[in-house]
Amino acid sequence: MKFNKNLRNIFLILFATLALSACSTAKKSQTSGDVYTGSDTVEYLASGVKDRVFFATNKSSLTSASRETLRKQATYLRKNKKLNVTVEGHADERGTREFNLALGERRANAVKDYLMTYGISGKRISVISYGKERPVNSESTPLAWSQNRRSVTVKVK
Amino acid sequence: MKKLIFLLFIYLNSFSLSNALIKVDITRGNLDPLPIAVSPLHVEKSSENLEKLDTKKLGVNISAIIEKNFKSTGLFNPLKKEAFVQKPDIAHLKPRFEDWRLIKAQALVTGKLSVKNNKLKVEFRLWDLTASKEMIALSFTTTPSNWRRVAHIISDKIYERLTGEAGYFDTRIIYVAESGPKNQRVKKLAIMDQDGAKTKYLTLGNELVLTPRFNPSNQMVTYLSYFRNLPRVYLLDIETGKQEVVGNFPGMTFAPRFSPDGKKIIMSFAKDGNSDIFTMDLETRVVERITEHSSIDTSPSYSPDGKYICFNSDRSGLQQIYVMKSDGTNVKRITFGNGIYGTPVWSPRGDLIAFTKVRKGRFYIGVMRSDGSGERLLTENFYQEAPSWSPNGRVLVFYRETKSGAQGKGFSAKLWSIDITGYNERKIKTETDASDPSWSSLLSK
């Protein structure tokens, strides 16, 4: 009886550990903290130049992965001197509409400021905030929300 | 909005409130609504029938609107007409009180109407069946097409007489009508009567529009439009349809509201990623900066006396509600509870601030005193925000969105209302999905 109980506990612990590690690896492949790190929704300005970066909830700070993406965007913009871009700032659906507009604006400007530190003229970059109005993933899940907290660099035609 | 001329005669109102035996207390949740009988209004036989209006049915239709209004308050229980014991014209002269008391009615509304020379004349009486007395009697003359407004005005008069507070039935709600998939929503400005009737669309849906708000006279609306992909605050004249951008700011302006005197618009202006609060005088076009802080300052709303402004800021790190003097001095944080706070709106009575609160992934609509004390959460849901006050400060309208599955399946946005007692939560019927409601003041003051 006692042995059984111990065995059961061991199994439970084993099971829990397995479940936890499965969970964390699944998360790891998609988000870090709550910043999206996957590439499901990402498009490209040119080969190897991602068009967007992602943010943590309520934040507009750039992760090291975001900065790497933006350095590639800056290089691309330096090579294509006639190209102008619009940076769209977006928020997830879990905030009030007006605050999200301000948050999207802040995120778009974080990207603009970073591109400017790499020598891209502010005149070539316009910003627009869409707040929570234009989700890229319409599902109401933490993963979708992480994909929607983004700044997207769009070529101006 | 058409200027309407109502001729109003108060020809019998000799009983003071203290004399009445029936009175409805609206300061608490009412679990025992007042049984009221609304008799169909008697239509005088000499009434002309009109091409666009079946005047014979007007008596029934007006009483139906009054009943619906009463029911929506949760304070009254309109009784079924099958049980009514007297013909409308006879009851209107003088009800047999004891017979009406038998069907458990405590108040009775009677009336009659006539249509002659393209004029609609309506009179009604409210009877206190417990005291066997007339409480109020009024008559109106207007154009027949205004018959719905007559029903709302009668509802307001009765509500006022029985509760001691102004009504909110002769009002409109402006909102954003939504359609299409969640990631490509088409949004139009729409306006309707408070009961959902007479919906009219004010924009075509070519550009994104958000957060419309009435001016104090209900003739102008300020809102955010993405016209030409430049999100700016606009002004719309409802009657003429004329639109103009408010101020030529070098960046996004948003979260607009009128000052209580209607002379200024207060809004956020975002520059270089930082949103601060500004006002613009609509006559002189003078722009004034109200806040200057590296945080997000948005969702400003004036106190009804115009002396203070409540607003939303994340200067403490997370979204909280602040109050300041209208010149921007004396900024004080008023929310300290667990969670984050947004969309503060000052009550037209001045006593309370309504807000949205987010805590542990749930959204609440609540009210608190203007110093932040006495917080009461009225309703909890997956997502809801943007409360707007009824003109008497007793009811809030807001919008609620549902959780959606893959590709936005199951997503909807609807308008809801709730009493500040926390009782009487109701979905407001709209032709399309709806968000960002703003409640007008009383149209006939």
What's the helix and strand layout?
The complex is a heterodimer of chains A (157) and B (445).
Chain A: H1 2-30, E1 31-32, E2 35-36, E3 44-46, E4 49-50, E5 52-54, H2 64-79, E6 85-90, H3 97-117, E7 125-131, H4 142-148, E8 150-155
Parallel strand pairs in A: 6-7
Antiparallel strand pairs in A: 1-2, 3-4, 5-8, 6-8
Chain B: E1 7-12, E2 34-38, E3 42-43, H1 58-73, E4 76-78, H2 88-93, H3 97-102, E5 107-116, E6 119-128, E7 133-142, H4 147-163, E8 172-179, E9 186-193, E10 200-201, E11 209-214, E12 220-225, E13 232-237, E14 243-245, E15 253-258, E16 264-271, E17 274-281, E18 287-289, E19 297-302, E20 308-313, E21 320-325, E22 332-333, E23 340-346, E24 352-359, E25 362-369, E26 376-381, E27 384-389, E28 395-401, E29 413-419, E30 426-428, E31 433-439
Parallel strand pairs in B: 2-4, 2-5, 3-5
Antiparallel strand pairs in B: 1-7, 5-6, 6-7, 8-9, 8-31, 9-10, 11-12, 12-13, 13-14, 15-16, 16-17, 17-18, 19-20, 20-21, 21-22, 23-24, 24-25, 25-26, 27-28, 28-29, 29-30
| Count of distinct structural domains of chain A | 2
Order of helices and strands of chain A: HEEEEEHEHEHE
Specify the helix fraction band of chain B.
Answer: 10-25%
The oligomeric status of these chains comes to: heterodimer
Radius of gyration of chain B: 23 Å
The total count of strands of chain A amounts to: 8
Count of domains of chain B: 2
Per CATH, what is the topology of the largest domain in chain B?
Answer: Neuraminidase
What descriptive keywords fit this protein?
A: 157 residues; alpha+beta; 60s Ribosomal Protein L30, Chain: A; 4-stranded mixed β-sheet; two-stranded antiparallel sheet; 8 strands; 20% strand; globular; B: 445 residues; mainly beta; 2 domains; 7-stranded mixed β-sheet; 4-stranded antiparallel β-sheet; 10% helix; disordered N terminus
